[in-house]
What we know:
InterPro entries: c-mor_Regulatory_Protein, Homeodomain-like_sf, Mor_transcription_activator, YraL-like. The chain has 5 helices and no strands. The chain folds into 2 domains: about 5-35, no CATH class; about 45-95. It is an all-alpha fold. The relative contact order is 0.07. The longest helix has 20 residues, at about 75-95.
Amino acid sequence: MSYVKATEVLPEEVLNIIQKYVEGEYLYIPRKKCNRKAWGETTKSKNKTAERNLEIYRKYQEGTSIKDLSEMYYLAPKSIQKIISKIKREILQKNAS
């Protein structure tokens, strides 16, 4: 997120109205709902996490324990269990259709 000078983008009338409420402070103006981006859409985080999760599942299938996976990926055992369960569900759904 970057900052933009209000004086450079807002008409003076709008700036005067805003100054009645906030003056000399930073103001965050959220995106409209229709313009919001999903998590990971602008970075590769979503894809990297999905790849990591598939790797965790593959290693689990090969016999690596949840405790060992937890230590390898610096995640709580419960998080590892959730990842494995989610991927199992996805595979079952994919095979059912």
